[in-house]
């Protein structure tokens, strides 16, 4: 399409516009024309547009619209004149997108060392230029770079969220052995195998859940008798094979575990547990055991927090929360399960480094299963220690009021006896407290009565007549009910001095302090004669 006349600073071109664009331009032109904005000196009015429309169609033009401005678009291009075909070409790109298109897709950040021409990922090539320049004596020696940092990539395989277990139920965990892969066995078949091995009829509330990552399963029931039988499970028969297994009662969901160090000596498990229960009556201790062959003791508490200190065998030990190491198998070198429940065949790999070799001195360099670093698996400095922790189960609301954690206590006879004993002691203490409260109430009532009687006696005090002579029988003498000094005891009254020639200081005459008092004769009990 030929270009039209252009102004001095550029070129002007006209090209056809669609009807939709024409209507939009008309509406905008009307809106700007109806505005009452006054003209600004030196600038165009808002109604003055750079778009002057005049439709140019190849075919017959459509009917003329009223008050239609000329549809001619002026395009200014500084520098040189272009045609309409060049303007409508597809290779035109907006400036904003052109800036992003000019940037490479994966642009690497420039190195802080501009003179380095070697690859930064190779530790040996990083300092090759420096060593070569130093050997030849070149004046432009690049700076020697620090060694490359080793990147540790840890791939974490998260297990899916397991279905929740019924609340307030006894949980028995079974760990099968002998290369049994539980994820390949249907749950109903495993339930029938458990029932056939124990030869019992499972209750209606019995349920079973398989943990595919740890290769264990949990049996749940609310009957303590069924839990006692499940705890005796020692083998499972699946098809033609019999696999050994170990079953134990799990701690309640709300229990916490603490560790005391350098405490165990040579006590039996029963002595260990009983000593902790007797010396720490303020804490509810559910279980306690020795940690392997160490001198540390693992204690399970029925509380949300671990106590600060624990008494054991006459000593006070600091109790710290237990942080179990993540499960890692030294047989297949995979996290998630342990060596005893590994479903893979025995590989005879070294548990420290993961290679096959004979025992050697000094020991081989360890290699962690979790992060593949040079340390033992699951130690405190391991980077992947917290990445392989199992997910916490969602706490279910309690639907009925039951005895707290009866599942864990009824399955262990020693703990059941301790619970019964603690209940008896609590009942006795409660009865003693009630008796003490009743006795205190009776004592307060008696004191109130005495205070009332004393106040009445003080307000109405009787007067007694005094006699000049008091007769006494031959066996004993009678004294006046009121003395001259009632506030003094007989031992504190002043005693008269003994007369000359008498050994006894006992006076022969009783004195009185008020004036006009007569002497009271004392009658001898032997001869009945009175002495003045």
UniProtKB/TrEMBL annotation:
Residues 127-149, 382-405, 470-532 are annotated as: Disordered. The keyword Coiled coil applies. Residues 419-453 form a coiled coil. The keyword Glycoprotein does not apply. It comes from the Eukaryota. Keywords: Coiled coil. Residues 385-394 have a biased composition (Basic residues). Residues 396-405 have a biased composition (Polar residues). Residues 473-487 have a biased composition (Low complexity). This is CCHC-type domain-containing protein.
């Amino acid at each position: 399409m030929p270009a039209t006349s252009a102004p001095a600073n550029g070129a002007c071109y006209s090209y056809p516009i669609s009807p939709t664009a024409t209507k939009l331009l008309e509406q905008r032109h009307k809106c700007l024309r109806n505005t009452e904005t006054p003209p600004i000196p030196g600038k165009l009015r808002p109604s003055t547009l750079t778009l002057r429309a005049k439709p140019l169609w190849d075919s017959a033009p459509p009917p003329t619209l009223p008050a239609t401005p000329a549809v001619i678009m002026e395009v200014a291009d500084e520098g040189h004149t272009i045609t309409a075909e060049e303007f409508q070409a597809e290779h035109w790109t907006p400036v904003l997108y052109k800036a992003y298109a000019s940037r490479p897709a994966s642009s690497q950040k420039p190195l802080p060392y501009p003179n380095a021409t070697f690859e930064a990922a190779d530790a040996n090539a990083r300092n090759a230029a420096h060593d070569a320049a130093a050997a030849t004596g070149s004046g432009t020696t690049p700076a020697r770079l620090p060694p490359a940092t080793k990147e540790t990539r840890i791939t974490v395989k998260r297990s899916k969220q397991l279905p929740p277990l019924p609340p307030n139920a006894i949980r028995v965990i079974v760990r099968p052995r002998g290369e049994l892969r539980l994820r390949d066995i249907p749950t109903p078949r495993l339930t029938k195998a458990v029932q056939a091995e124990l030869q019992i009829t499972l209750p209606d509330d019995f349920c079973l859940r398989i943990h595919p990552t740890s290769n264990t399963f949990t049996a749940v029931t609310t009957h303590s008798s069924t839990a006692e039988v499940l705890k005796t499970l020692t083998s499972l028969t699946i098809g033609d094979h019999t696999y050994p297994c170990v079953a134990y009662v799990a701690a309640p969901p709300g229990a916490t575990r603490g560790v005391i160090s350098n405490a165990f000596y040579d006590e039996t498990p029963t002595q260990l547990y009983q000593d902790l229960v007797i010396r720490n009556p303020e804490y509810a201790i559910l279980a306690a055991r020795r940690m392997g062959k160490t001198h540390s003791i693992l204690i399970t508490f029925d509380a949300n927090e671990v106590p600060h200190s624990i008494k054991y065998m006459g000593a006070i030990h600091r109790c710290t929360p237990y942080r179990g190491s993540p499960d890692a198998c030294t047989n297949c070198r995979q996290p998630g399960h342990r060596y005893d429940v590994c479903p893979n065949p025995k590989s005879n790999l070294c548990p420290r480094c993961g290679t096959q070799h004979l025992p050697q001195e000094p020991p081989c360099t360890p290699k962690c299963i979790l992060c593949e670093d040079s340390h033992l698996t699951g130690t405190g400095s391991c980077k992947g220690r917290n990445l392989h922790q199992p997910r916490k189960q969602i706490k279910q609301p309690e639907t009925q009021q039951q005895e707290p954690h009866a599942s864990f206590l009824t399955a262990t006879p020693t703990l059941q006896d301790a619970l019964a004993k603690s209940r008896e002691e609590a009942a006795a203490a409660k009865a003693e407290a009630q008796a003490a409260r009743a006795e205190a109430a009776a004592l307060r009532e008696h004191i109130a009565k005495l205070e009332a009687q004393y106040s009445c006696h003080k307000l109405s005090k009787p007067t007694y007549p005094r006699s000049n002579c008091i007769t006494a029988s031959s066996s004993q003498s009678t004294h006046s009910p009121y003395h001259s000094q009632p506030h003094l005891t007989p031992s504190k009254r002043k005693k008269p001095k003994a007369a000359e020639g008498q050994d006894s200081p006992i006076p022969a005459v009783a004195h009185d302090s008020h004036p006009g008092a007569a002497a009271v004769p004392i009658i001898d009990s032997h001869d009945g004669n009175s002495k003045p």
